[in-house]
Write a structure and sequence with these properties.
two-stranded antiparallel sheet; 1 helix
Length: 266
């Protein structure tokens, strides 16, 4: 069914040179049909476009402007979105499996329930993004900015979050099993009941974070900073706490690496 593209500029800006221009025929196809598999839309101005449930699999959208676009339920699997602008975009339930979103700007975007399994989001801006219940399993989020992001119930198992900024992020009940969070910033983050089993948290910053009821079984917390962290009801059995800073941490009904339970902070 034909879709309305509210702000599709046919003469979209060419970012670098004519060599990086989109294909005008592909842009017209998208305008006429609302779908464009394998299309070349590099650098196209699609700001505010209504592309709900559009099929854009494997499309080249490198550097494209999709800010405020409606892409709810769209299929962007394996699409090239490197450096694309998706600020305030609606991507609820969108399919982005295997998509390349490196250095993309997704600030304040709505990605609730989106499918991002195996996606590349290295150095991406996801500040204030809503990723509640999103599937980010095996995704590469190294050095991404997730400050204040909503990741409640998100699946981040086996995801690479090394060096990511997750300060003030909400990770309530998120699945972070086997995730790489080395040197990640989780300051003031909410990890209530999060599953961090076997997670790599070497050198991570968790000052004043909420880890109440979190599962940290066999997690590597060596060199991490847990100062002021709430570990009430958390399970640290088998965890590596070598050189871990725990000054002022709350330990109430907390299971320690050796299986003992501490109530000193109750």
């Amino acid at each position: 069914m034909k879709r309305t593209l509210t702000a599709l500029t046919v003469a979209a800006t060419v970012f670098a040179s004519s060599a990086s221009a989109f294909d005008p025929d592909d842009l017209q196809k998208l305008k006429d049909t609302g779908d464009c598999l394998n299309c070349d839309l590099e650098g196209a101005d699609l700001q505010g476009a209504i592309l709900r449930a559009a099929d854009l699999q494997r499309a080249n959208l490198k550097g494209a402007n999709l800010s405020n676009a409606d892409l709810a339920g769209a299929n962007l699997s394996d699409a090239d979105l490197i450096g694309a602008t998706l600020t305030d975009a609606d991507l609820q339930g969108a399919y982005l499996n295997g998509a390349d979103l490196a250095v993309a700007n997704l600030a304040r975007s709505d990605l609730q329930g989106a499918y991002l399994e195996g996606a590349t989001l290295t150095d991406a801006d996801l500040q204030g993004a809503d990723l509640q219940d999103a599937n980010l399993a095996v995704a590469n989020l190294a050095r991404s900015d997730l400050q204040r992001a909503n990741l409640k119930g998100a699946n981040l198992s086996n995801a690479d979050l090394a060096g990511a900024n997750l300060s003030d992020a909400d990770l309530n009940s998120a699945d972070l099993q086997d995730a790489n969070l080395a040197v990640a910033d989780l300051t003031d983050g909410n990890l209530d009941s999060a599953d961090l089993t076997d997670a790599d948290l070497q050198g991570a910053y968790l000052q004043d974070a909420n880890l109440e009821g979190a599962y940290l079984n066999d997690a590597d917390l060596s060199g991490a900073d847990l100062s002021g962290t709430n570990l009430s009801g958390a399970n640290l059995e088998g965890a590596n706490l070598i050189r871990t800073k725990m000054n002022g941490a709350t330990l109430c009904n907390t299971t320690m690496p050796d299986g003992s339970v501490l109530y000193s902070g109750c």
